[in-house]
Amino acid sequence: MSAAGGTLPPDERRLGAGAAIQDTKSDKIALACIYTALGLFCLAVLYPIVYVLSASVSNTKRVSAGEVWLWPVGFTLDAYRAILDYKSIVSGFGNSVFYAVAGAVVATILTLLAAYPLSRKGLPGKGIIMAAFVFTMMFSGGLIPTYLVVHDLGLLNTRWAMILPTALAVWNVIITRTYFMVTIPEELVEAGKVDGCSDFGFFWRVVLPLSKPIIAVNLLFYAVGSWNSFFNALIYLTNEHLFPLQVILRQILLQTKVDPSQMADTSKLAQMQELQQQLKYSLIVIGMIPPLLVYPFVQKHFVKGAMVGSLKG
Amino acid sequence: MPSAAHKRTRVAKSRVGLGLRIRRNWQLYAMLALPLIWLAIFAYWPMYGVIIAFKDYNVVSGIWGSPWAGMKYFERFVESYQFWRLIKNTVYLHVYELVATFPLPIILALCLNTVRKKWFSRTTQLITYAPHFISTVVVVGLLVVLTSPNTGVTNKLIGLFGFGPTDVMGDSGMFRHLYVWSGAWQTMGFAAIIYLAALTSVPPELHEAAIVDGASRLRRMWHIDLPAIVPVAVILLILDIGRILSVGFEKVLLMQNSLNLDVAEVIDTYVYKIGLASSVPQFSYATAIGLFRSVIGLVLLVLANTFARRFAKSSLW
């Protein structure tokens, strides 16, 4: 019987050795419990999301009356139309897209530039530089000194304030560096040298093409992080035209501030107040959907990245 | 793991002079230049700026020109009536979060690892990762609309059982529970990734041998899978202990309202309020409180690491 596990394909072995062996009764009960628990947990995760989606496209009065439990009741897109009329939401959405894309590109470039040299064997001073990066994970200047730096650089109330101060996450540098150490063997570097390839050339022509998964993971993490962050905007920006979506969401969702001057058409104000609650649901959907649409495509890569990272992490 | 060939090249390299090795690698240093400049400006410059905690900082004189104030601001903080309240709120919230949510991703990973149907495991992962990608503003927004006394679905639900509507967000007794369990909802799935990764290192032969010896599934989870996770868990625990005075600041700030402030005011939100949100910003005082917190965090991290190295045989460094 012990050979049974050995004849299985590797995947099957990884997921549960001895799949060919009959489960005992107690094992079957345990498995059933595990499946049920996981299923229930999935439902618990999904329910708030589905509920808000449904409520955002349901008739306002019927949501308030508590008729919506899971599926939309009295389907309508009024709430989404009202959002399009609210200028700061539209501009906030545009700003957030810009910050996410520009921030992710800048941050990913910086991360790759830091991670590759630090992944190379025998680079003098590597240990000190790495320590300088890692130390910032454990100790930082704190809120006020960082704010003063941004202030002194003249970045307050500029788009740069949303991109530069958070442009590098040391955690990403560590994961990316580990990825390079595992996927770019020293032999390849030596071979490149023998062929007369410079470090720049090797990085550009060999390393980057081999690193698409880790580049994708970096782009995703930085873009999502930027899309979701609100605190930097809160302290660095006072100009409403630069506000990202999350700040607008906070104003409307949590501080219940609806500004009539933001309405394209003031005759809709009454309708707006009626839609207030509705608007909250649809705003949550607008704020939450973009990252949720993107991550499944990159999931395979970040799971792999975490695996590689944990090897030496 | 370095092979003999590697060792030989390394030995050969170390014979080459240091200056020559630096010159040979100038392109690698050139690549590092930009990230290092960033690090100097946005990580180490603020660390230098921390000295304003020991000065009477004013914007006109700048960091260096402002007069020294010694330990004045630290003494003021420790003696202030806010001190124990802030420490208590912060530690309480973090310890509650740690105790309640730390084991959850481990349990999730162990369960997922046992599941043999690949589609089921994949779907569960896909779904449970989702909340990680939702912003704090939206999660708190979700809490607000779902628990709203007038329209929230949770109040409709308890209404079915004959209870009247309650304003949970405004109830200071509920603040910690809401904070911790919505956090569990958001982070548990994604946090399991690293444990799942650790579990792939378990050799299948161990399970085969255990099955032959008649070990049940639960026993194998306990005696084979769990020990494989422990080193990773210890490291994450050390990091968490180092963060004991810095709870999820954004979320606390977003969940605060006039009704729950007595339990919801933590060190970081207080620093923000007196340092930036107030009409008379007290830069030096706020920096001193922030520094106090960072130093305690660092000390705890080092202590936890020493402890772990001695007793659990795994550590950060």
TrEMBL record, chain A:
Coiled-coil zones: none
PROSITE patterns: ABC_TM1
Nucleotidyltransferase keyword on record: no
Major location (coarse): membrane
Location relative to the cell: Cell membrane
Record flagged with keyword Cell membrane: yes
Topology term for the membrane: Multi-pass membrane protein
Lineage: superkingdom: Bacteria
Pfam family, one: BPD_transp_1
Keywords: Cell membrane, Membrane, Transmembrane, Transmembrane helix, Transport
SUPFAM superfamilies (UniProt xref): MetI-like
Protein family (similarity comment): Belongs to the binding-protein-dependent transport system permease family.
PANTHER family per the UniProt record, alphabetical: ABC TRANSPORTER PERMEASE PROTEIN MG189-RELATED-RELATED, POLYGALACTURONAN_RHAMNOGALACTURONAN TRANSPORT SYSTEM PERMEASE PROTEIN YTCP
Name under which the protein is recorded: Carbohydrate ABC transporter membrane protein 2 (CUT1 family)
Organism listed in the record: Kribbella pratensis
Upper classification of the organism: Bacteria, Bacillati, Actinomycetota, Actinomycetes, Propionibacteriales
TrEMBL record, chain B:
A matching Pfam family: BPD_transp_1
Superkingdom field: Bacteria
Membrane-related topology note: Multi-pass membrane protein
Occurrences of domain ABC transmembrane type-1 (ranges): 87-304
Subcellular location: Cell membrane
Transmembrane segment boundaries: 28-47, 91-114, 126-146, 178-198, 226-245, 283-304
SUPFAM superfamilies assigned: MetI-like (SSF161098)
Keywords: Cell membrane, Membrane, Transmembrane, Transmembrane helix, Transport
Keyword Transport: yes
InterPro entries according to UniProt: MetI-like, MetI-like_sf, UgpAE/MalFG_permease
PROSITE patterns referenced in this protein's UniProt entry, alphabetically: ABC_TM1
Isomerase keyword on record: no
Family classification: Belongs to the binding-protein-dependent transport system permease family.
Protein name per Swiss-Prot or TrEMBL: Carbohydrate ABC transporter membrane protein 1 (CUT1 family)
Naturally occurring in which organism (per UniProt): Kribbella pratensis
